[in-house]
Amino acid sequence: xxxxxxxxxxGLVRLLKKFAKEDGRKRTIITTIHQPSSEVFLLxxxxxxxxxxxxxxxxxxxxxxxxxxxxxxxxxSGFNPADHYLRQLAMGYLDQVELEGEKTTESPxxxxxxxxxxxxxxxxxxxxxxxxxxxxEARSLMQKGNPVSxxxxxHGNGGCLYGYGGYKxxxxxxxxxxxxxxxxxxxxxxxxxxxxxxxxxxxxVFFGSFYYDSDHDQRE
Length: 220
Description:
Order of helices and strands: HHEEHHHHHHHHH
Mean pLDDT: 78
Low-confidence stretches: 104-109, 156-165
Structural class: mainly alpha
Helix content: 40-55%
Shape: elongated
Number of helices: 11
Strand order of the largest sheet: 1-2
C-alpha cells in the first residue's frame, strides 16, 4: 500500500480478503503493511507481532486489544490500535514519566530490557493460553524424525520453519513455477516485456562487441 491513500489501501486489502474467501475456498494470504489506518487494520483476520525474533502476539486481530489490556497496555480511547501496538513494541529509550503519559522536562533515561513494554508483552504472551495452544498445534504438525526443540518454539527463532526436513517440492519444480509466475507478471504489460527483452539484447550486443574476436590477453 506504499504510495496509496487510506481509501485506496482499504480497497486493496478488501480485494485481498475477498480473494482469500472466493469460491468458498480458504486461501492464506500473508502480508506486511506500513502504518495502516484503523479501518484497514481491522480487516485482517489474524495478527502476528514480533520483537527481536520473539512472539509478542499471535491470534485474531480483534482479540489483540484484550491481550494488550491484560498485559497492562490498554488501547487508549479513539486511538488507532495498530499505532498503539507498534508504539509499545518500539519503546526503548523514553523517560519513565513519559511512559505514564505525563509531561516532563527531565532528560530521557535508558530503560532496562526487562522494563520495556515489548519485553513485558513477550513474557505475557509466552504465558498465555494462546501461546500454549499454538505450540500444541505446531507439535501436531511436525513430521516424525524432524523434531523442533521447545526452546525454538518458545522463542520463535525459526525452529518451526526449518525443522521439517526441507521443501515439499524439488528444486526443478520450484524453478519452473517461479519462472511461470514471473512470465505471467511480465506478460501483463506487453510493452514493458518487449522493452526488457530489447534492453537485454542491446546490452548484450553492445558489451559483446568490445570483446568480439579478441585474444585472451589482458594486455590488449
